[in-house]
Specification:
heterodimer, A: 16 helices, B: Rossmann fold, 2 domains, six-stranded mixed sheet
Amino acid sequence: MSQNSSTLPRWIDIGLIPILNVAMALLVSGLIILLIGESPLEAVQIMIQGALGYDEGIGYTLYYTTNFVFTGLAVAVAFHAGLFNIGGEGQAYIGGLGVGLFLLLADDSLSPILLLPVGIIAAGLFGAAWAAIPAYLQAYRGSHIVITTIMFNFIASALMVYLMVNVLIKPGQMSPESRVFLDTAHLPFAHEIFAWMGIKIARSPLNISIIWAAICCIGLWLFVWRTRWGYAIRSVGFNEKAAVYAGITPAKTIMLAMFISGALAGFVGVNEIMGVHHKLLLNYTAGYGFTGIAVSLMGRNHPFGIILASLLFGVLYQGGAELAFEVPTITRELVVVIQGLVILFSGALAYMSTPWIEWAYGALSRRQSSAGQGEG
Amino acid sequence: MSFLKQTMIVGAALMLSVSAQAADDKPAVVFDMGGKFDKSFNQGVFEGAERFKKETGVAYREFEVTNETQREQAIRKMAQRGRSPIVGVGFAQASAIEAVAKEFPDLKFTIIDGFVELPNVQAVLFKEEEGSFLVGILAAMASKTGKVGYIGGMDIPLIRAFGCGYEQGAKYANPSVEVIQNMTGTTPAAWNDPGRGSELTKGQVDRGADVIYAAAGGTGVGVYQAAKDAGKLAIGVDSNQNHLHPGTMLTSMVKRVDVAAYNSFKTGGDGTWKSGVQSLGLKEGGVDWALDDNNRSLITAAMEKRVSQAKADIIAGKIKVHDYRSNNSCK
């Protein structure tokens, strides 16, 4: 997709404006917190302290960040091809099913060293397959991908409930969950790794999936900006007709972009199923797929921006939970309001402040240049 | 025994023991994703906790989870603050309670609707199938068309157990009755979708059902409204919902989660808290059918006699109600 063609220097466009947007969102949130009779400063302090102030909080923040990096990258790669993938939620769900099914079948027979790479492949393939159907319908049948990916979210949840309630449930229990995977199939938690090194930190769901998330960021950057396929994807996103003129087949490019998008979303399943829950269950995607859209928009569809935006949303999720825990009058609904305001200001209203900043920047640079002339 | 009377007796008995309340109890409750205002299951717990607070003046801490991972996080946080007893609401919290209870063997934990066997955990289960059996009898006897409906929330074994008990009760009263069953959805949104509840009700009414039982949390509100609009009867769930639409609400299948939460807090304070698994059925007053002024006119003498007899028979063990969850099947 085309970036906005502003006259501003890059550091303002990708640095100052996002920070201003978040600040405006926090300002409005502060007013709301003031209205219900709590101190906004104290609330911000609890959020920051809860998310970044101690080892358990940092662990939870980074665990959320891992999920948002996967879904944010998924939305971004589709976005570069001009596609709006709203189906990250369903693709993540099915990706989890992929890694879960694989572990249920093979956790006792396959060598533990192989479980992680094959688990990643299983999650990616299942997620990609789930994205491939809407991609095919878009590429060859012209069904709009926004509609089909949304519908596939519902189909994914229906499929999961059918499987969990009727097929994969561990018999003799009430909760629709599969059996727990063998210990050898659990990804090491961060607190376990630190314990091996002799450092004791509090337990949290953070696990080595975060390393895979980092690898995906680098890999995606190389793919989109340093390969022919990435060039084809960006060309189709910028101008499909020009891409055809350049010898690129849009249909194939759409399939490729969505395939990668679905696989990235599917990796949420690695973090959740193999890393945290160690069993198949329902509802583990918890809206990460949808939040990925905001993460990608805020990160300007660039892996580095997505990492920063994911961190911000990780802080909002973990700090928000902490806030709801510590201050009884701030309910979880209010935390959703704060998260929603950040999404509103940095997504929907992302360019609201641009004209003013352009004006201010213009005025400043004019004054500087005229001052320079006066001296000279 | 009527629902109101029972509440009053329980309340009076508890009033007497207020003075014995120890000053050092620090109860906490972790609600599940439905939230404490779901007009149903979580709200029942909330009301029990509020009643405790009002009677004893002891404040409790609470948290509402928003995703799978927060359950263990919230319960552990409560434990780190030395809270006890900690009440976990819903079967989905069982594994989280189990993990945290092992780490904090000196604290007391209560899981409602879940099964955990540890020396410091109290597991409270309900025999929903027994209460559903009774309202099934009433539904079949009140039905003129010989067709009754059931609308569940999210399609999970617990909700199938409600439907399964209901079907057995209806067939017990009238072997030729037809039970039409629908589930609202496959995501947690199904617990709070009155619009869809209303559509499903209209669909069941079109197929001939004239008494509809909803076990669907907030979705039930739509079911009852649609039943009222069509001039049919409906059956409430969890709390006594008879007052919502007098004349439409045939009865309610009450599940006393409020009493479970109240008792856990209460006994945690006065030192009589006991670990172990409690299975609360008709016999223990854990589930029941509701009869009050709002539905008095809908329940005929014959119906009351039949259902009271069935209740006595279930308590005496003469009628065995099959539990869907025992073998994941209604057979």
